Amino acid sequence: MIPVILSGGSGTRLWPLSREQYPKQFLPLTADGSMLQETLARLDGIEGVGAPLLVCNEGHRFLVAEQLRERGIEAGGILLEPVGRNTAPALAVAALAALEQDPEAILVALPSDHVIGDLEAFHAALRQGLAAAGKGAMVTFGVVPDRPETGYGYIRAAAAEGEVRPVAAFEEKPDRGTAERYVASGDCFWNSGMFMFRASTYVDELDRHAPRILGAAREALAKATRDLDFIRLDREAFEDSPSDSIDYAVMEHTDRAVVVPLDAGWSDVGSWSALQEVSERDPSGNVVLGDVLLRDVSDSYVRAEHRLVAAVGIRDHVVVETADAVLVAGRDHVQEVKAIVEMLRAQGREESAFHRRVHRPWGWYEGIAAAERFQVKRIFVRPGGALSLQMHHHRAEHWVVVRGSARVTRGDDVFLLAEEESTYIPLGTKHRLENPGKIPLELIEVQTGAYLGEDDIVRYDDNYGRGP
Question: What does the mean pLDDT of the chain come to?
Answer without folding.
Answer: 95
